[in-house]
What does this fold into?
Amino acid sequence: MYRTHTCGELRIEHINNTVTLSGWVQKMRNLGGMTFVDLRDRYGLTQLAFNMETNAALCEQARKLGREFVVKVEGTVQERSSKNPKMPTGDIEIKVEILSILNKSVTPPFTIEDETDGGDELRMKYRYLDLRRNPVRKNIELRHRMAQEVRRYLDAQKFIEIETPVLIKSTPEGARDFIVPSRMNANQFYALPQSPQVFKQLLMVAGYDRYFQIVKCFRDEDLRADRQPEFTQIDCEMAFVEQNDILDTFEGLARHLFKNILNVTLEDKFPRMAYDQAMTLYGNDKPDLRFDMKFVDLTDLAKQKDFVVFNQAEYIGGICAEGCAGYSRKELDAMTQFVQKPQIGAKGLIYVKYNEDGSIKSSVDKFYTEEDLMAWVELFKAKPGDLLLILPGERNKTLPQLSELRLEMGERLGLRDRKKFVPLWVVDFPLLEWDEDSQRFHAMHHPFTSPKTEDVPLMETDPGKVRANAYDLVINGVEIGGGSIRIFDEDLQKKMFDLLGFTPEEAQDQFGFLMNAFKYGAPPHGGVAFGFDRWVAMFAGIDSIRDVIAFPKNNSGRDVMIDSPSPVAQAQLDELFLKMVQPK
Amino acid sequence: MYRTHTCGELRIEHINNTVTLSGWVQKMRNLGGMTFVDLRDRYGLTQLAFNMETNAALCEQARKLGREFVVKVEGTVQERSSKNPKMPTGDIEIKVEILSILNKSVTPPFTIEDETDGGDELRMKYRYLDLRRNPVRKNIELRHRMAQEVRRYLDAQKFIEIETPVLIKSTPEGARDFIVPSRMNANQFYALPQSPQVFKQLLMVAGYDRYFQIVKCFRDEDLRADRQPEFTQIDCEMAFVEQNDILDTFEGLARHLFKNILNVTLEDKFPRMAYDQAMTLYGNDKPDLRFDMKFVDLTDLAKQKDFVVFNQAEYIGGICAEGCAGYSRKELDAMTQFVQKPQIGAKGLIYVKYNEDGSIKSSVDKFYTEEDLMAWVELFKAKPGDLLLILPGERNKTLPQLSELRLEMGERLGLRDRKKFVPLWVVDFPLLEWDEDSQRFHAMHHPFTSPKTEDVPLMETDPGKVRANAYDLVINGVEIGGGSIRIFDEDLQKKMFDLLGFTPEEAQDQFGFLMNAFKYGAPPHGGVAFGFDRWVAMFAGIDSIRDVIAFPKNNSGRDVMIDSPSPVAQAQLDELFLKMVQPK
It folds into this structure.
């Protein structure tokens, strides 16, 4: 037997018990007369005590233990002379009688501590060692608990978890598919799913009513920071529902997770905001509502004087940064440089300081009188001590720039508290977006998303104006998930494919089985998918999804630990009727 | 709103309630004055009543409803005049006031009934319709409940579900991998996992102690009946355990599932049988213990006379079929033909009838006296009325032949009751098996399986004799799962790779990251994997795993519903640095 207890379990009431523990050597301290070893497992640390006076041989053995050795000890629980109130097991230690080394360890390439000296690459390569560190382990445990709670909630709501296939069919819509050559079907290929979208819709046609799955999805995209080629979705679909039924059900899921995992009680009804409004007020379809700082449209008011920058701008908007009128020249320059960064791309930044003493100082004093600027201040509802920050330009470009500025100011003012959670449903997304490259419409969500009933006539006359029954759940400015009511009418689906530029043949070839299924009594249905990695990262209070994935890949899609992808034998390719082409 | 209740919910206490239901038209019966429609959803059937006298227009509308139309009705719950005690909703019906057709349906290609007129191929092609049928739906619901209970049990036992990657590395050991070309790493490939074996061992090295995952695995094999290229495992691993700890833990899982899903209480300690004994007594490493009928070794006793067939046989064994002495010539011929089938391959079958009157009649009367045969009868502990069935030949071939015969007789005698469940741990499997083709040893379980400590010296002298710490859970003759204690010592692992004919370079290339991980303090560990599809099929009382998978593939690995695999555009292959080769 390797253990009677774990290393996190023993307390003062176990004193005098004979116990067996196994684990890793976290630390060895040779104090001359006494030697102490911290033994670690997943559950905690327990101090082992070796006494040179009473058992010199054993104590000598303990002194030779290296970091990360795996050992088994038998001994007696005794009260510590100097207790450690920071450790759950800090009241006790084990007076060791037998020590067995189960396995040795060479010196790890980085320290197995909460703050390690290992860099990213090294920790990825030795991921099995990185996973031993408390912060990483806690993330993995959190992920497990969240998955359990997701299932508990959805099961109680009569959702059925149904596994959909991983070897499916390549479709040209959306991102690039990973493909899998078939050996038994020469020159044919499976694709890995970007999502189980079609299958969950087929399950609705099949009458399953409430489906979910926590499921791996795959995208062969050029990896930006914090994208993974394989990622995990909480994928859900419901039949005989309208948009509100879906929002209510998944508000429930969010509330359940916040309550049961973080012990945070969210408000009873999440606010809902139309996409247009989110863009107008926050320049962002996933606004961070932990703080207000709404955009104020200054276009009309500011265009009354001879300031050419403003007069040529399609849109002039700004935010009011409370209490920032005292910003120094240097601070204002920093903000200007911030908005001028290439990834933001503003030309410059205009400020108006509404000083505590009621005076006004701005970067456009040359063009506007104090009265002019006082009218601005009033429009912004600014108080003395506040700072207005203003950007002019094309509306579509300026809104996102101003959004970045707003988020940066929120950050600087400490308004983006990681312990505070503000959920929001963004609704009424556009059905289509125009793609300049291909000169055609793309589905903003996906080609099965239903237009709002009242907007269907616009599909003929002004497709860009059609709003969809689509929604995103946004928490603290992070898109946690999104979904839509689906088209369940065959004719409307055909019209949609037509708008997206599919010929009837292409539509039939790619989605024929779905359209065919719709002939046999498709119910009204809709669903949602949540980015599970992202949600776990939010609950863990960290930014990168990589830290909540046990074995993540790096930015080139490589698993540096197992060294994959890797070459395969030509014989293996022969069986698959494939030949490699050397890259140029 | 589409519904206030489901179609399985309304009872006598709902009478006079105004309700809204949605679902599919199961059946329409036009009785002249009255028209009845059975409305179906996942939860049940509810009868809708339309009265020609009180609302002729509505009744006319109802009469036009086709099978599988999707409708919404509003109406009042009323007591039925003729109740149907077979239906949970059989006491009531809905007096319909409003009928809306949500979607029409063309006539389905087969009937949506418990017994359908659709053949296998048709039902696969229209799987979304097949999934509407009660027996299929019940399997899918059962699968969901089983997955939930697996997670509930393992979570309570402190197991953590950890997702391991799907895009991994190809290894030559085991079955053929599916491979996935990498676009970002030219001429390199991922592989889909045949199991998360290495990752779960790395998780033990990482200190996670109790891991599980319900996970898709992949094998590119020529599909025999009832194999799927993608299948689902309950994959588990534990550290700081010995074989008994693992068997106890997963006996617990099995008991939990039997109790909570089937309400069957299994015995407290599953029997354990060594592989050798299972082969000797049942000719099978997964014996069906619902019935006894052990093999009796007749070799010594039968070799005393001039019957050349026996005298040349390495092994002569038989079974005693109780109460079958009365078998006719025709029945005995049928049994002979059964064992002579090519997939069984026996030359012939010898019988000895121990008649009710105490007389003996056999197919070898020419060679053996009644006294000789009486000695056989005694060895078999046969009673008057029993029938001995005997096969001679090479031991390795005869044992499995006799096993097939035993199972067939068990079937004929009604001893393989689907409602009875007899679990068994088969233990002490051989570590290695000799492969004639490659003239080398293969790992019987996998290359990480630990030999029994007492057999380690045999690795040098007689590797074929080494027993492994490996075990299978067998229920009713079906292998539900299996596993092993793993090697956690780097040197022993090297020795194992050596025995398997890996050069140190090959071992390093394929499993270097695992052996490297073992340098950093690997704990003793072991695990098990259960075939989830198979287990669900057993609980569903069916033979084919295809019936418990929502979207299965056919025997050519094709999904005939979505028509996959399928060709891809050359442009897609160009990006992957691949060219197709035409099959010859």
The mean pLDDT of chain A is 95.
